[in-house]
């Protein structure tokens, strides 16, 4: 989320926002799933600790976006007239 | 519209669940504040400065459609009809999305129009433009109201918030981020919403499958249930179409749903096309609907399957499907009921967040396409021309506020008279039905005249209205979705016939005005996209990506057919 003078819409890296939200969700769910989900709640979903597993999944999603943003950062062209998400255009391959 | 019946659906949300919900809303508003920094012209505000990468616009493209009616409605269809519901995705969306990207986008993006009505103005002049701009603007604010009301009803039933308070809170949040950050904020939030919706539905599906003993367990239970094994194969879907003959049923699906209805919706609805117009290059614009098509092909797994699970796991749903009435539940309650049945606190909070996110995505898409059409197509073209750009940026912001206020009004009316909303929805489907015919003729037949543009649209709309009325009073007897399939087909045919006849008797539009708008008058170079820089690489070829998703869809059809 760097400051940019350019008015073009490469304003902040959405991938980092997604990574942060799911990092919080992931950690909360893992903690709740591992220590605060009781037997009756576990039985609801067919004895599967859905909090724990979803938390792990969300933490992985968060890591994936963080790595993607790290490997292919938003490049601001040196002249600063047009900031665009150069190279962030990969389609999740 | 009754989204949720008046049953006891209250979820026992704890402070933990509320905290997860609040975190989401803080991020949503934060995106609005951050996006504001990038807005300095009306084009920034209303079209994101045409600067977004294709994966962002592609996910926003399907997220804008993933609203209240879609999510609850398709889960409901899954519970009621089972697997044949996938036709709404595999036949009713994918081919049209690929067609939009490969065939129509070069004209939309290449001609630098700022909206779908603006394309009609450049191609046909004022008549067709006014018909479309007015009906679209009116449709969007009223449908925003429908979505807002659905959202408020959900908050009321799940969490116990009063309906008026829920309407206002939901509207204020959407208004806050769309007025601040414009389309960029709406689109960025749509991408975030997409992931939150999947994060809510995927665990729900997995928990459900674990409960019923996996996919095989689900098949066993559905086969033994009232629907029988027919609900486990996509074809011939006689129950869904209401057409008893299996061959005619398949024809009805492929032509009615697949060709006429879905092409009309996906290729001419500005709320969708706008997402592609905000892409940063022709290549990215063409890839937008095609990238969106991949998740669209797969998402039935987490929308329809939970519906099917709800029908065998939730006791109230089982009773409903066995034919009980008066239990107070409807098929539309499938998702919330399954959430209550399966999810522990924590995941429950995420699931509530996902549902609310989906509903807000719908409202934001309506509002952010309304303000563009209002500002560029109505205000700038017919009220105040030739003002400096800051003026139109201000108009855009005010239109957002005005549109939201009207939507709140509509939502309050809807909360008083539920049935009105069904008719409003039907009314606006009439305007949508003939549009595809006019666009496709206009893009590929340079002779088509200006008068034919508006005459075809008006006649096609009346054709659809006529079929609707005949079905309402019982002259035509078509159960299920049959009437809307036939209505759309009639609108299409009438539009083509009237356009051709009127063209033969009127003057064509001068050819020099049609460059970039009509196939034969657009140089090949202008229709093609660059393949350098950000658009380089075989995996960014729109044709290859489009072919890939079509193959995927055919395979899915064979596996689940």
Protein model, in words:
Chain A is an all-alpha fold. Chain A has three helices and no strands. In chain A, helix 1 runs antiparallel to helix 3. The longest helix of chain A is centred in the N-terminal third of the chain and has 22 residues. The N terminus and C terminus of chain A are likely disordered. Chain B is an all-alpha fold. Chains A and B meet through helix 1, helix 2 and helix 3 of A and helix 1, helix 3, helix 9 and helix 14 of B.
Write the layout of secondary structure elements.
The complex is a heterodimer of chains A (93) and B (561).
Chain A: H1 14-35, H2 39-44, H3 50-71
Helix pairs in contact in A: 1-3
Chain B: H1 15-36, H2 42-47, H3 54-63, H4 68-81, H5 87-90, H6 94-110, H7 116-124, H8 126-159, H9 163-212, H10 214-224, H11 238-241, H12 246-268, H13 270-277, H14 282-298, H15 300-313, H16 315-321, H17 334-342, H18 347-383, H19 389-416, H20 418-432, H21 435-444, H22 450-473, H23 482-505, H24 524-527, H25 542-560
Helix pairs in contact in B: 1-9, 1-18, 3-9, 3-13, 3-14, 4-15, 6-12, 6-14, 6-25, 7-8, 8-9, 8-18, 8-19, 8-20, 8-22, 9-10, 9-15, 9-18, 9-19, 12-21, 12-23, 13-14, 13-18, 14-25, 15-16, 15-17, 18-19, 19-20, 20-22, 21-22, 21-23, 22-23
- Count of individual helical segments of chain B: 25
Number of helices of chain A: 3
Work out the number of β strands of chain A: 0
Strand count of chain B: 0
What is the chain-wise order of helices and strands of chain B?
Answer: HHHHHHHHHHHHHHHHHHHHHHHHH
Radius of gyration of chain A: 18 Å
Largest beta-sheet characterization of chain A: none
Look at the helices and sheets of chain A and give the structural class. mainly alpha
- Say what oligomer this is: heterodimer
What average pLDDT do the residues of chain A reach?
71
DSSP strand content of chain B: under 5%
Q: Taking all residues together, what is the mean pLDDT of chain B? A: 83
End-to-end CA span of chain A: 24 Å
Radius of gyration of chain B: 23 Å
Form type of chain A: elongated
Helix content of chain B: over 70%
How many strands, what sense, and barrel or not for the largest sheet of chain B?
A: none
Q: Which residue ranges of chain B are poorly predicted, with pLDDT under 50 across at least 5 consecutive positions?
A: 1-7
